[in-house]
Amino acid sequence: MPRSKVSLSTPYRWLSEAWALCRANLALFLVAASAMLLIALLPALLQQVAATVLPRTLFVQVGIYVLFSLLLLPPVTGGFYRLAHGAQRGLPMQPRQLFDVLADGPSARRLVLVNLVFFFLMLLGVLMPVAAIGGEPLADWLRALAALQPGAKVLPAMPEGVGALFAGALLAGVLLSTARALAMAQASLSAVSPLRAVADGFRVALSNAGAFLLFYVPVAVLALFGFMALALVAVLIGAVLSLVSSALTYLLIMPVVLVVALAYYAMVFNFFYRAWRDTLGEDDPTDAPLPPPLPSHEIEV
Q: Fewest 10 Å CB contacts: which of 3, 28, 146, 197?
């Protein structure tokens, strides 16, 4: 069972602690996040390359996806949690240790199996029901959205019931993603079986669903406003720089976008590492101290 209760303010403490851990090991996590982001993007890049030298067949596309997304990325994800765990304990971690879990056969297989369980749960529990319930009206609406031209001011009308369908799918997807992150941390940092790790992830996610959801909503809203502000600044800077050179716009803006993406990547994994520590992990007397989190009021649920 989870070691401690999760209050409505606990996820904000995890976020503060994740930020402190990232700040104390900035280079480590940015390099590790860069490697993970590259691995996550490799399937799409390799599919484009393969299409130029091989027939564009379903076998080639699925093979590339399975190789990287289902076999390579899960162990590397576990490696990131181990980096966070080592950094928390004050050990001198190196970015290359992100890949050490690939040499740990039992852990690598455990992570791959846990990820496969959640892949099929997402497919069978969210994507396929949405496609089946939405039917042809949903497909027509999605095709109409895809066909919109830049600058379009009128969006195609949403079919009746699609809004509620998307809301339900989003809720299920968020809870599945939370359970998956906790299960992957459990599979990486403990020797439990894959099914036990999946069960642990679901137990924590579902028993604290209110705290997680009430954390995600304001954070998502703030992130949206932050993204809009960043996009507006980027557009204004791009408009000014385009008077000099369009290439200059990309040279100055793209590095900023990349750093923001990497920081987000690192924060997400460190957030779920902190969540794992409080709910499924064990106290470690060798942990290095973190800066104290921001004061908050504890409201038990």
A: 146
